[in-house]
Each structure stands twice: as C-alpha cells, then as structure tokens.
Amino acid sequence: MPATGVTAMLILAAYLLGSLSGSLLLGKLRGVDIRTQGSGNAGGTNAFRTQGAMFALGAVAIDIGKGALAAWLPLHFTDAGSVSWLPYAAAFAAAIGHVWPVWHGFRGGKGAATVIGGIAVLWPAAVPVLFAVWICVLILTGYVGLSTMLAGLALAVLAVTMQVDQTRLIFAAATALLLLFTHRANIARLRAGNESRFEKARLLHRWARRA
Questions:
Q1: Buried b (16+ CB within 10 A) or exposed e, 105-131
Q2: Is 2 exposed, middle or buried (0-12, 13-18, 19+ CB in 10 A)?
Q3: Which alpha helices (DSSP H) does the chain contain, by range?
Q4: How far out from the chain centre does Cα 176 lie?
Q5: DSSP assignment of 59-108
Q6: For the whole prediction, is pTM greater than 0.85?
Q7: What is the pLDDT along the chain (211 residues), one digit of tens a residue?
Q8: Which of 151, 82, 163 is nearest to 119 (CA)?
Q9: Within the chain, what is the greatest distance between any pair of CA atoms?
Q10: Among the four residues 23, 157, 176, 181, which has the most C-beta atoms within 10 Å?
C-alpha cells in the first residue's frame, strides 16, 4: 500500500489537474472569459453557445483528457491493487477541481466531461451506456443539462444493477450526486419552464413536425 503521503499527493495532483479548465485556458488565448458570457458557466455547452463548435470541442477534449490522466496516474505509479479506491478518488478529485478550480478563482464548470474521462479509464464499458442515455434524452428533449443529469443517474443505476464492488458503487453514487448539484440551476430553470434548449438536437420533434 502506498504511503499516506503519496496517496494524498496523488489526490492533490488530481485536484490541481482538474483545476485546469479547458474553456478558461483556451479563452485566455482568445482573450475572453466565457464566465462573463452566456450562462456564465465554464463548461462545454456554454463554450459552444458563446465561442463556437471548434472552441467547445477543444475545451471538452482538455477536460476529458485531464479526467483520464487523473485516473491513470494512480494506476501506473502505485500498487492500485492494494488501494483499489485511489484511482476513483483521484478521478473524483479531478472533477471537484473542474467545478471549483483553484487556478480560476474556484469558479469552474459542472464536471461532466472530466468525469467521463475518469470513467473511460476506470470503467470503459459504462461509457457507451452513458452516451446512449445522454444522446437519447437530448434528441427527445433538447435539454443538455437534463441529458447530463440523467446520464449521471444512469451510472448509479448501472452500478446497482451490475452489483459492482463497493468502491465503484460509491464512485457512481457520488458522481450522480455531484452532477445533480452542479446542475441545480438547470433544475430550477426546468421547473420554471425557462431552460434553454438545443432545438436542432430535438430530431424526433423536428421529424414529427415535418410528418
């Protein structure tokens, strides 16, 4: 088992890595802070709406990559078999860093892309399921936030139905709760009926109107 100090350093490193926000780093190169535009969130959706597809793609790629790297480091630099929870803790710490980034005044995004990066390393079989839930909800409703929240809940349901080990179950539940918390403003707007939609994503609605 790695020393307590090494364990703490890996989790801290994961948090600091997670604090490197893709949209804010790319925004510095462009001379913009997307937290002052659109919804004010430093995530991929607001990046797409305010800066365009290529900017958002780059931001999301960075955020997924840092989540994957945070999970990968404990697997390759410690005896992860003896501390099975450490890679999951590091992946979650990276998501926390994305939401509350020390480098950016603790005002970041909602953590979904960073979480996906960690899951891609630690539980790759779950990724297609989460993507399927996300894209289906998006096509049906046009709500990105709702799609992300339900994908997070799907991760928890998947963990329960597959009867995974306790570490993975806790990680899945914590991830679902984190995504619900970071999307609390979306929940309020959904209840009020003024949540923004991606109308072009509502393919079934568009097909029905044409029929």
A1: eeebbbbbbbbbbbbbbbbeebeeebe
A2: middle
A3: 4-18, 22-30, 44-51, 53-77, 86-99, 112-122, 126-141, 144-161, 166-182, 184-192, 203-210
A4: 10
A5: HHHHHHHHHHHHHHHHHHHS-TTTSTTHHHHHHHHHHHHHHS-GGGTT--
A6: yes
A7: 456 778 889 999 999 999 999 999 999 898 999 999 888 888 888 888 889 989 999 999 999 999 999 999 998 876 655 568 999 999 999 999 999 999 989 999 999 999 999 999 999 999 999 999 999 999 999 899 999 999 999 999 999 999 999 999 999 999 999 999 999 999 999 999 999 887 776 665 556 566 5
A8: 151
A9: 64
A10: 23
Residue 11 CA to residue 149 CA, distance in Å, equals: 25
